[in-house]
Specification:
By secondary structure, the chain is an all-alpha fold. The protein folds into two domains: 108 residues, no CATH class; 132 residues, no CATH class. The chain is built from 13 helices and no strands. Helix 3 runs antiparallel to helix 4, helix 4 runs antiparallel to helix 5 and helix 8 packs parallel to helix 13. The longest helix has 29 residues. The relative contact order is 0.10. The model has no long low-confidence stretch (mean pLDDT 88).
């Protein structure tokens, strides 16, 4: 099963007519799932179950990410269709998560049910801590990245117990660095959508590094059209994110080199290309603006 096949097999559970017709779904976590699949392929004790484990992990992650899309505002505020979409996101998230229990129990993988369930509990605890700090506007830019990487890596860290020797030691760092790159890439893409800048890395960066007037503007007027976009440009947020992504990609490549497997390195290389390309493209755009 290639990484494309993992996504195709997951579609059997994700492409439900009612869900597809009435609500949007998050992006499939192809990168982290492919990372897990390839590393498990090199673990004698886990290789035989790599397809099942990759599939169920993708379904649990889709469940978590779908729940994350639920609007916290009152359901009736935006009309009947919007209310239905919100309700379906809750149900879809529950449905995706329930499939993992079913698939693992059928395979007799009771211990993995426990491990993944514990990981989900820890992810929810981290989310509560993050939301508390966000609601009080007491979050640093680096702290935001740290939380984001924790939330993306949480499920995948639960597979460390299936690995041995060098892989067991490196896996936590590998998935953490990979997740951080994914967060940074998502933040770069987020800059292209002015409607999604509230709560972005750039906002926390300005609250941390900006002038008193700019920090006050963010606290009091961040919903004002165009305000966040102009401030993000003023503080060169795109360039800073680009630099952070290049730095994190370099760190990720350093961890990969420690795996001491040319075959695995070749398999993982395509997974980091989006990070390399995004950083290079953004750098070129910034240099063009300056030039």
């Amino acid at each position: 099963m290639t990484r494309v096949r993992i996504a195709q097999k997951a579609q059997k559970y994700i492409n439900h007519d009612m869900i597809s017709l009435h609500t949007d779904l998050p992006e499939f976590p192809e990168g982290r799932v492919s990372l897990l699949y390839n590393v498990l392929s090199h673990q004698p004790a886990a290789a035989a179950q790599k397809e099942l484990l990759s599939l169920v992990t993708s379904l649990v992650q889709m469940g978590l990410d779908t729940h994350e899309m639920v609007d916290n505002e009152p359901l009736g505020k935006h009309g009947m269709m919007a209310m239905r979409a919100q309700q379906l996101k809750v149900l879809a998230g529950d449905y995706f998560s329930s499939r993992f229990y079913n698939l693992l129990s059928q395979a007799g993988q009771i211990d993995m049910i426990r491990r993944i369930s514990e990981a989900v509990c820890e992810i929810n605890r981290i989310k509560m801590s993050l939301y508390a700090k966000m609601s009080q506007l007491k979050l640093g830019a680096e702290e935001y990245l740290h939380y984001g990487a924790e939330l993306k890596s949480g499920l995948f860290l639960s597979f460390g117990g299936l690995m041995t020797g060098l892989y067991e030691r490196i896996w936590p760092e590998l998935v953490d660095k990979f997740s951080r790159c994914e967060v940074l890439l998502a933040e770069l893409r987020r800059l292209q959508k002015t409607s999604s800048l509230d709560g972005s890395w750039g906002m926390w960066h300005i609250l941390q590094e900006g002038t008193e007037d700019d920090r006050r503007a963010v606290r009091e007027r961040r919903d004002e059209p165009g305000l966040m976009a102009s401030l993000l440009q003023k503080y060169d947020v795109a360039d800073k994110l680009c630099s952070l992504l290049r730095q994190s990609t370099g760190q990720l490549q350093g961890v990969m080199q420690r795996l001491q497997s040319d075959k695995l390195l070749r398999e993982l290389q395509p997974l980091i290309e989006p990070f390399v390309q995004a950083a290079s493209a953004q750098r070129a755009a910034v240099l063009k603006e300056l030039g």
